[in-house]
Design a protein that fits this description.
heterodimer; A: 162 residues; mainly alpha; 8 helices; B: 122 residues; globular
Chain lengths: 162, 122
């Protein structure tokens, strides 16, 4: 975690300098701090929840349904799980990390994240409200095979390399 | 802070074809804000005469790329998983945009919403 932290600090300083040239650095800083204060309680609860999930998932279930051995079954379950994970990134990502930590395979984990980004239910009320059900249906039906493909590809990579 | 709404507006209207899909998916990835900011912004494009597949690519680009989300993904899940997920899904919005272009080649965004959603219902 040290390397990403250092990279983020470097990127943060660069973006701060870039925005300072446009006179927008204070606006950006204030927006970032506002977001941090808003999501801090969510992150705290999400990590507690994630720890509990990791401890409570039975090993047998992980081996049969989520681990590398589960193959496309894990990918399909990951896709379904990602769709149903109707929360923002601050809450969803620690939960996904805990499922991965519990022993889920790469295929399951990647399909979980991809389905959360492409098919996540949390955005549906906004999308259907502003763009209508037809648009949502087109996007979801096009997105589903790509989520399965992402999981299948990750599963293949895991099977070949690890 | 890096991407203004005017810039997105210009991009969506300037490019077409495969190049347009490439630029609009990237623009979607750079567009800041949560769904309650993003979707009201998108609604302002319902009446515009831009190719529907570009509008679609912009939405999918935001969902898959969302570059502001990458640091969160790396720190809250794992850097390796985040990199692999992003590497695998890089071409997805482009493919989805191309498929949308195949099915809705000549349809403009305003025509799509007029035909399927009964025009501007906001």
């Amino acid at each position: 975690m040290l390397l990403p932290t250092l990279l983020f600090i470097l990127l943060g300083v660069l973006l701060l300098a870039f925005n300072a040239r446009r006179g927008k650095h204070m606006e950006g800083l204030k927006s970032g701090i506002r977001q941090l204060l808003l999501v801090l309680p969510v992150i705290l609860v999400a990590f507690i929840l994630a720890g509990m999930i990791e401890a409570v998932i039975p090993e047998e279930f992980v081996r049969q349904w989520l681990a590398r051995e589960a193959g496309m079954r894990g990918v399909a379950l990951g896709t379904l799980g990602g769709m149903l994970l109707a929360m923002g990134p601050y809450a969803s990502f620690p939960i996904i990390a805990s499922i991965y930590g519990a022993g889920a395979g790469l295929g399951t984990t990647i399909s979980l994240i991809t389905a959360w980004t492409l098919l996540g239910m949390s955005r549906l009320p906004y999308e259907m409200g502003f763009l209508g059900p037809r648009f949502t249906a087109i996007r979801m039906s096009l997105g589903l095979p790509f989520c399965l493909a992402a999981g299948a590809l990750a599963h293949t990579i895991e099977s070949l390399l690890f | 802070m890096l991407v203004s709404k005017e810039l997105i507006d210009r991009l969506l209207q300037k490019f077409t074809g495969t190049k347009g899909i490439l630029f609009t998916t990237l623009a979607g990835g750079f567009f800041p804000g949560p769904p309650y900011v993003f979707y009201p912004f998108l609604a302002s494009f319902r009446e515009k005469k831009i190719p529907f597949y570009l509008f679609f690519s912009f939405v999918v680009g935001k969902q898959v790329y969302d570059f502001a989300r990458i640091p969160m993904e790396m720190s809250l899940i794992s850097p390796g998983i985040a990199l692999l997920r992003n590497a695998i899904t890089v071409p997805f919005p482009l493919f989805m945009g191309l498929i949308a272009r195949f099915f809705y080649r000549d349809m403009l965004t305003d025509e799509f919403f007029a035909k399927y959603e009964g025009g501007d219902q906001r």
